[in-house]
Amino acid sequence: MQITVYHARECDPKRCTALRLCRAGKVEIVFRVEELPRGGVLLTPFAEKALSKEDAELARKYGLIAFDCSWKKIDQVSRVKNWFRPRSLPYLLAANPTHYGKPTTLSTAEALAAALFIFGEKEKANEILAGFKWGPVFLELNREPLEAYSRAKNSAEIVEAQKQFIPHDD
After folding, report:
1. How far is the C-alpha of 94 from the C-alpha of 100, rounded, in Å?
2. Which end of the chain is more exposed for a tag (fewer CB within 10 A), N or C?
């Protein structure tokens, strides 16, 4: 599966998970949105449809895509979203040192690993996170939800499954 990351050059290169993944040969980095593979599955928090196992074949055929940019530039997704198949990740907790324990504030590496895990590619998810001290912590912290999401057959089942993991104010 081709994994491509659009990198906006906004972060500290020493702490950037996407650049580390590129140096390790695990992802391809592009610096222009136009260089992204058309038709790929794009991870974006603004997608109306949740990522699920049913997207795995599309990702294998056209690629899995992530944006590594600040929220200020994320509007670029709306400009080009018709080129891709936008999908949002379900509820997960970050394990990276910058956002540890924060829901849905994942690093690029965490987002890609989560997508691969949901697709049933658990070994590849482990490989993505192997270069980070906190990588195994992400999988452990989210073990139960990731397992539930990987069993879901489609977006509707993902949305239903995540309800049990989102904290509720009682």
Report:
1. 5
2. C
- Does residue 29 sit in helix, strand or coil? strand
d(CA 87, CA 25): 24
Q: Which residues contact 93 (CB under 8 A, 6 or more apart)?
A: 101, 102, 103, 141, 142
Write out the chain's pLDDT in tens, 170 residues. Answer: 999 998 877 776 677 788 888 898 899 999 888 888 899 999 988 889 999 999 999 999 999 999 887 655 555 555 666 788 999 999 999 999 988 999 988 999 999 999 999 999 999 999 999 999 999 999 999 999 999 999 999 999 999 999 999 987 75
Give 55-59's long-range contacts (Cβ < 8 A, gap of 24+).
Answer: 55/85, 55/87, 55/119, 56/119, 56/120, 56/121, 58/85, 59/1, 59/115, 59/119
Strands 85-87, 41-43: parallel, antiparallel or unpaired by DSSP? Answer: parallel
Its pTM stands at 0.91
What is the helix (H) or strand (E) element at residue 86, kind and residue range?
strand 85-87
Backbone angles phi, psi at 66, to 5 degrees: -130, 150
Per-domain residue ranges of the chain: 3-162
Q: Which amino acid is at 3?
A: I
